[in-house]
Records
---
Amino acid sequence: MAFAIARVYDPPAPSDGYRVLVDRLWPRGLAKARAAVDEWAKEVAPSPGLRTEWHHAADRAGTFDAFAARYTAELDANPAARALLELGREHDRVTLLYGAKDEHLNHARVLLEWLAAHGASVTR
């Protein structure tokens, strides 16, 4: 099993394998057919309160570590995160899709690190 992340707005690639959207909200302006999503795992996304707090932060770069710590704690207690690990065992490759513009400071990166810490092979 290998996990990777990609921006949902980028064209799908044959190497993506099983494509899972990990955002709580559907990406703005994106048709479902164009997204080529195999599964929408919105339950694994940050909680609504944490997501709202993060999106309204004046300095996202300065608060990313705090956000990552809180989101990691949510993942530790989230059965959907464990289900995602199991999904990785069912597929050779799983690409986690996110809609954020920043490819470095986003919840999908934190999720990828959490998966790696729990034994999953990841591509960074």
---
Amino acid sequence: MLRDALTRVALAAALLLACAAGPSPAAQAATRAPMYFDAGTAAVADGTREATLRRLDAIGVRALRVTLVWAAVAPDAGNTRRPAFDATDPTNYDWGAYGRLVDAAQARGWRVLVTFSAPAPRWASANADRVTRPNTVEFGAFATAAGRRFGAAVDAWGLWNEPNHPRFLRPQYVNGKPAAPALYRALHLAGVRGLEAAGQAADTMLAGETAPGGDRKRSVPPLQFLRGVLCNRCAKLRIDGWAHHPYANRRGPFYVPADRDNVTIGVMKRLETALDRAGRRTLPVWVTEYGVQSSPDTLLGVPLAQQAEFRSISERLLRTDPRVAATAQYLLTDDTALSGFQSGLMTAGGKAKPSLDEFRLPLTVRRQGATALLWGLVRPAGGATRVEVLVRDRGAARSAVSTTRPTDGAGTWTARLRWRAGRTWRVRWTAADGATYVGPPVRAYG
């Protein structure tokens, strides 16, 4: 997701989501949704891949998202003239570090989601920007090659990254009317057919992968885009899930965009309602990219402790939504340049943020009168376990154990405790191997 897309989302008042003491049976199913971690360049690059995967494994990651850039692996990608080659044959591509990453994830037994992304090869696009009107025939052939190369390791595919953003697909509008939805429809159809030709028909085919906001000039808002893709007059596409990237801003996960066609994490119901109205009432929602920006980003970033709190709240919102079939985290390590992303669990210099410990033990505390409603998760639980809830009151020298709570088989737990002004909460968990982990302190909200 790109910073300029985020800044175009209009500001509005915060909205609090109602929270019960424990999730409903339908919501409990959502707690089992896989978390697809996109570690970006650190996972792809040969020099950092193994250390990155070891770190991810240590914090409970069991599913990986890989953003596969077409131009990065295609032959003669910078030339306007197409080379003579069989584009469906995977041996004609240089899969390089992407191939080594997917192979490494498969060796660990992880689930893998591959998202196809621009830029396209110059010979497969209508403009030197390599995102204008990508050739659908060539894309379908590329999808076949990718399916044949990665098919044994991959069980889900995103057909184009953020097609409602001009960084990835153009034109977004023609004569004031959205053009990107029709362009994307053709790409999606070609990609699905290409993957099916590669023998991947049993895999999950995701549509959307939409950015959270659009300004109706340069970029199409995600719900306007959705309506264009799923229009009544259009032939029905094979879509096994609608994917979205619901980044918010520094106002946090309860932020409500003023434009009702924009969708951040606190208003996922907008997306679900739009799918219902488009005749896709049973279609699951996949969140395939998400993160909370922190300092040193001065535009969107929040303090490091607040990043951890916002990330936990975001995870609760998704995991207690029965429509959500997958969640996501982007990145592990911040981008070096401030123009990039500071949504990692570690700084660009490799220092752990509070959110690194929080990722293993997400915790939210919502005040309801004199009661604190707690929701938490142990990642990965590996079955039912128990956690200790620690509290620390204002002025206290240290935390004390308030209670212990059992988790369900997916590692989720809830509790009702007494609220007190100035109190913070944290979780301590001892794994089966005897290792003990403690999450960062959390404040109550609400």
